[in-house]
Design a protein that fits this description.
The protein has about 550 residues and is of the alpha+beta class. It has 17 helices and 23 strands.
Length: about 550
């Protein structure tokens, strides 16, 4: 027996899988009024803190680029204003009673930006491209629960055995290995958007590197962009099936790393959206243009634990973890609504389906600031490594990252005499590449998952994960995470206990990561712009249904 989920019934049917997520915690000083008439010109200008990288959705990794991906490429489902998955390119899905078989029906009016029909084969091609180990896609793990996907990713099975098929142009079938309540949320993320094989192959190596070599399935198209450029333009996609809901006709974007520059542009009406942090938050919090919301994100210090290096020493990692006052970091340095975090998983990511308890509450706190413990672990480390050590902390070159890095540097050097921290700043995209190349000692990093599945965070430290940049390897950790995703996946009590044990091993016993804070996002936004959505997963903001209000 199968059940059908269409646009309206999906809202009720999907609520149960979003337990613990709720609505984005967003507040604004804007007055809430009924939708007024539109301004004659629906054009705005916005900024992002870093350049875009690749727009090949199977390769996109950073949040800046992903924000634009969500505007350009729509998949089977999409996220609504409450971060609930609703039908996108697929207008309905049949799900088997055992939760293993998904039969998606592609809407008849789904078109590429060139006017050609989007078909089920476009999803087959894109998903196989993502999973195929020859392509080295870091996000291939997203489909690990699709039948045979993980084995294919690890080179143990052929790509032809992936549990997806297209019986017709309008029918896309997926077979899962285990029931996955968050699956519809997962496929609402742009990583799993379709790609047209004949177009992609015709572009060759040029696909995704500039706006001239892309085909779009989402509400907007892209112009005036190539890799490393600091500006771009979104244009309304007239071929989009739901184009009548898209009111903005043009969005000019630019990279602005210095927040005070962006703020000046905003206050001189040359910019309609600017992200702010730190001292600027209390300074502008009373303005009508101020918008804030809590992120489901973890910002942390990651260690390169390569054998033979100082940071392979567990005591040294623990000393660093205990030496940082996260309360002071959140209150005195960030001062933007961010909260101290003492675990891998941020608050409000996921709740136990049986007890309704949030995982962060259930798992507890680890490695809280403790100067005495820091000094004790430092003495143990010095016994093996010597009295004086120098390490380099890799950070992005935006204002916020530099402030956090300077605080971390001062805390470590003040509390651990003899340990010197040098700060290396690089453009954000260079930082990401340095981490992928394992060319770092410590790095200031952040992670926001693709959905509300806890595995999206634990994947960072699985020994075979493409995201395991710091070479962490613990067989017991791997065993617990695997059990949580497979044998214990249908028992939330067992699953939560598996993940709790894994988190304790990772953070407390091995000190593989130093969680720092759960971030908040703050913006100055033209108060005449209405309808912006802030999703729990993936992007900074979404303009699909935004509009500029007239006078």
């Amino acid at each position: 027996m199968k059940r059908k989920i269409g646009f309206f019934t999906a809202l009720l049917a999907i609520l149960s899988i979003m337990v613990g997520c709720g609505q984005t915690n967003s507040t604004t000083k804007e007055s809430t009024t009924a939708k007024s008439k539109l301004a004659k010109t629906q054009e705005i200008s916005v900024s992002l803190p870093a350049e875009l990288t690749t727009l090949d959705t199977t390769q996109t990794m950073d949040k800046n680029t992903f924000t634009i991906v969500q505007h350009l490429f729509e998949g089977l489902y999409r996220l609504d204003k409450n971060s609930t998955p609703v039908p996108g390119i697929a207008d309905k899905v049949d799900i088997s009673k055992d939760g293993l078989n998904y039969d998606f029906h592609i809407r008849s009016d789904a078109k590429w930006s060139n006017g050609e029909s989007i078909t089920a084969e476009d999803f087959v091609y894109a998903w196989k491209k993502l999973v195929n180990p020859e392509n080295g896609a870091a996000n291939a793990y997203l489909l690990d629960n699709v039948k045979n996907s993980k084995e294919i990713r690890l080179g143990k099975k052929d790509i032809s055995e992936l549990g997806i098929s297209a019986p017709s142009k309008t029918e896309f079938k997926v077979v899962l290995s285990q029931p996955q309540p968050s699956f519809l949320t997962l496929i609402s993320i742009g990583w799993l958007a379709p790609q047209q094989q004949k177009y992609v192959e015709a572009q060759g190596k040029n696909y995704g590197v500039d706006s001239e070599h892309l085909l779009y399935s989402g509400p907007f198209t892209l112009e005036n962009w190539k890799q490393a450029s600091d500006s771009w333009t979104l244009k309304k996609n007239k071929a989009y099936y739901d184009a009548s809901k898209v009111k903005l006709t043009k969005i000019d974007g630019t990279t602005i790393k210095e927040e005070n520059t962006g703020i000046d542009l905003f206050h001189t009406n040359k910019l309609d959206l600017q992200k702010i942090s730190g001292q600027f938050v209390p300074q502008y919090a009373s303005e009508n243009s101020f918008v804030t919301h809590t992120d489901i994100a973890n910002y942390f210090i990651d260690f390169n634990k390569k054998a033979g290096t100082p940071l392979a020493n567990q005591a040294l990692r623990k000393a660093i973890a205990y030496s940082i006052d996260k309360e002071a970091l959140s209150t005195n340095v960030l001062n933007d609504g961010s909260k101290p975090l003492n675990g891998l998983i941020p608050a409000k990511l996921a709740s136990n389906a049986q007890t309704k308890e949030d995982f962060r509450t259930y798992s507890g706190t680890y490695m809280k600031y403790n100067k005495n413990k820091a000094k004790s672990e430092w003495k143990k480390a010095q016994a093996n490594l010597g009295k004086n050590i120098s390490l380099t902390l890799l950070v992005a070159d935006d204002d916020n990252s530099k402030k956090v890095a300077e605080f971390i540097q001062s805390q470590i050097q003040e509390n651990l005499e003899g340990l010197k921290i040098e700060i290396s700043t690089q453009p954000k995209n260079n930082v990401n590449q340095s981490r992928r190349d394992k060319n770092y000692e410590l790095s200031l990093s952040g992670w926001i998952a693709g959905d509300n599945d806890l595995s999206m965070y634990f994947i960072l430290y699985e020994s075979a994960s493409a995201y395991n940049y710091g070479s962490y390897n613990n067989s017991e950790y791997d065993k617990l995470v695997t059990a949580a995703k497979t044998t214990d996946a249908n028992d939330s009590n067992k699953q939560f206990e598996d993940y709790k044990k894994a988190e304790k091993i990772l953070i407390e016993e091995d000190a593989a990561q130093v969680p720092l804070y759960q971030s908040a996002s703050n913006y100055l936004i033209n108060s005449n712009i209405k309808g912006i959505e802030y999703h729990l997963y993936g992007d900074y903001f979404n303009f699909r249904e935004a509009y500029l209000r007239g006078n």
